[in-house]
């Protein structure tokens, strides 16, 4: 599987939210606020209007999300304890699962320069104080001698036609890019947990079929497509075989598990580790090691990667233990001369750890 490093709201939802806000709040009056700033991101919730009381009432809440890091962010996620129903939302996709509400950026307001901010709004059922919010983004604070997290194609995970039949595990907030040849029809999704951010190409446009999704809530989704050709729609049709493509996606949420962090180094080569779901595994190796593959059968989810060959920076990889099972994390040393027409004779060092994850 090729792995590397946002949700579109319906126009009617945005218009409805905007008109409702205009009708209820001709002159905004903040009657309550709650703010949090953690890890390069702040979220300030302000109650703009309330009506009725208790469960028979309702309120309009505006949330200002700011990038407090010194580096640019391309996405953000805001979470809070859900005490009432989210009737509607605009400028973000909001979902509720297990008593926790999660808002992720829309495709057009995720990118924030250092110090920049954006807003999203909600209508909530019932009245109460402004919710206390937590915020996170993908801005990486600069660290001396340490590179920023790599980003390829703007997605956390990328799948192609070679991944047919595979299962992909995503954490809530991660993005998935599907990229298929132009002979495939547009990708379809069945299930819940993913929000479509963009879709393009596919038969009969003559352009590669692509779709970008954001994991917004725990769930199970099947993505599928099949090849198609113009001659299949003529009389008589041609005899070109049809190829079917499908990938199963599992979205999990381990952000509130409070697990431990385990760091491994070259000294742990061959070691067997035991983790629990929600734990974080850190792989810290010298710069001559290749970034390890992320396909661990959904047991470990690769959260981010920095450094490694050929960046000449130390390799640091973070995994989250997502599901019970067993998985190996493996990588090898690599050098420029290994890619010469006549490779250098130096030995290639293999590094492996064996991980068992329990619930």
From TrEMBL:
Residues 34-145 form the CBM2 domain. Pfam families: CBM_2. Gene3D superfamilies: 2.60.40.290. PROSITE patterns: CBM2, TAT. This is Cellulose binding domain-containing protein. It comes from Paractinoplanes globisporus. The lineage of its organism: Bacteria, Bacillati, Actinomycetota, Actinomycetes, Micromonosporales.
């Amino acid at each position: 599987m090729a792995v590397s490093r946002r949700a579109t709201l319906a126009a009617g939802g945005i218009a409805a939210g905007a008109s409702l806000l205009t009708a209820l709040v001709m002159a905004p009056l903040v009657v309550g606020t709650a703010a949090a700033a953690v890890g390069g991101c702040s979220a300030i919730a302000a109650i703009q209007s309330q009506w009725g009381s208790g469960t028979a009432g309702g309120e309009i809440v505006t949330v200002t999300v700011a990038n407090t890091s010194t580096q640019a962010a391309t996405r953000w996620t805001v979470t809070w304890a859900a005490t009432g129903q989210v009737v509607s939302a605009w400028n973000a996709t909001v979902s509720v699962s297990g008593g926790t509400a999660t808002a992720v950026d829309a495709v057009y307001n995720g990118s924030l320069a250092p110090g920049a901010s954006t807003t999203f709004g909600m209508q909530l059922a019932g009245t109460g104080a402004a919710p206390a919010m937590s915020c996170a983004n993908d801005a990486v604070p600069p660290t001396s001698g340490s590179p920023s997290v790599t980003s390829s194609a703007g997605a956390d995970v990328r799948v192609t036609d070679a991944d047919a039949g595979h299962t992909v595990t995503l954490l809530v907030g991660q993005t998935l890019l599907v990229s298929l040849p132009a002979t495939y029809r547009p990708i379809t999704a069945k299930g819940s947990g993913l929000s479509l951010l963009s879709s393009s190409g596919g038969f009969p446009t003559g352009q590669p079929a692509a779709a970008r999704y954001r994991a917004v809530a725990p769930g199970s989704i099947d993505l599928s497509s099949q090849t198609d050709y113009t001659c299949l729609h003529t009389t008589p049709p041609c005899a070109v075989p049809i190829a079917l493509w499908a990938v199963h996606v599992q979205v999990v949420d381990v952000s509130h598990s409070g697990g431990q962090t385990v760091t491994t180094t070259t000294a742990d080569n061959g070691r067997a580790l035991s983790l629990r779901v929600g734990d974080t595994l850190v792989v810290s190796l010298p710069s001559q090691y290749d970034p390890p593959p992320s396909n661990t059968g959904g047991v470990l989810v690769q959260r981010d990667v920095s450094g490694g060959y050929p960046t000449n920076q130390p390799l640091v990889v973070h995994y989250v233990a997502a599901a019970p099972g067993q998985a190996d994390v493996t990588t090898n040393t690599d050098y420029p001369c290994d890619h010469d027409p006549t490779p250098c004779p130096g030995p290639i060092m293999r590094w492996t750890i064996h991980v068992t994850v329990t619930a």
